[in-house]
Amino acid sequence: MKLFIFDMGGVVVDNFNVRPKIAEFFGKDESFFKDKKFHELFNLIMAGKISEENFWIEFCDIAKLENKGNIWGKFFKPILKKDTINLIKDLKKNYRVICGTNTLQAHYNIHKNNGDYDIFDYVYASHIIHLVKPDKEFFKYILNEENIEAKDVFFIDDYEENVQSASEIGIKAIHFDNAKNVRLKLKEFI
C-alpha cells in the first residue's frame, strides 16, 4: 500500500496568502510580518497553542496596532487548482490520498465549508494535531496514525524546507511547482 500526502496552500489551492491584504487593512506594507515575534506567534496559532483572538491581542500590542478582532478569515478566498485536483482524483483510484497542512482554525473552517477537503481521504491539520511542518514530528505523527512506513509514503509540498524534512525521515518527498511536473516525477515511482 502507498500513501500520498498533499500540502494544501500553494499545492491544492491558490490565493491562500492573506498577509498582503491584512497588511493593507492595517495600512502597512507586508514587511511588518517579518517581525520575529510575528513568526513565533504565527507558529503558535498554527500549532493550536494559542487562540486566534489571543494572537491578534498579542500581535497588535507588539506592533502598536489597533486590534480589530480576529481577521484571519476576512481575506481568505482560496481557489482550487484543477490540475492538482485531477491528479489527486487519478491517484485515489489506486491509493489513499490525504492532506497534511499547516493551517489555523479560520482557514480550516473556510476550506471545510467550501468542500475543499472533500477530495481527500483524511486531513491532518497542524492546529488540530499540534505539530507544524517542517518539524519531523508532524510527519511521524501521520505515519503513526496511518500505520504506514515512511518508505511507502509520498509527500508533495511547495516549501522546500518541508520537502527536505520529510525526505530526511525516509518519505519520498516531491517539491511542487505544478501538477504536470509532479505527475511526471511520480511516474518514476509508481
Structural summary, described in words:
By secondary structure, this protein is α/β, with parallel strands linked by helices. 44% of the residues lie in helices and 14% in strands. The protein has a five-stranded parallel beta sheet. Strands 2-3 form a two-stranded antiparallel sheet. The chain is globular. The model has no long low-confidence stretch (mean pLDDT 95). The chain contains nine helices and seven strands; from the N terminus they run ββαααβαβαβααβαβα.
Averaging pLDDT over every residue, what do you get? 95
Measured between the Cα atoms of the first and last residue, the distance is: 11 Å
> Which radius of gyration do the C-alpha atoms yield?
17 Å
Write down the secondary-structure element order.
EEHHHEHEHEHHEHEH
Number of strands: 7
Number of helices, counting only DSSP H or I runs of 4 residues or more: 9
Chain oligomer state: single chain
Low-pLDDT segments: none
Sheet bearing the most strands, described?
Answer: 5 strands, parallel
In terms of DSSP E residues, the strand content is 5-15%
Q: What is the structural class?
A: alpha/beta
Helix content: 40-55%
Strand order of the largest sheet: 5-4-1-6-7
**Global outline:** globular
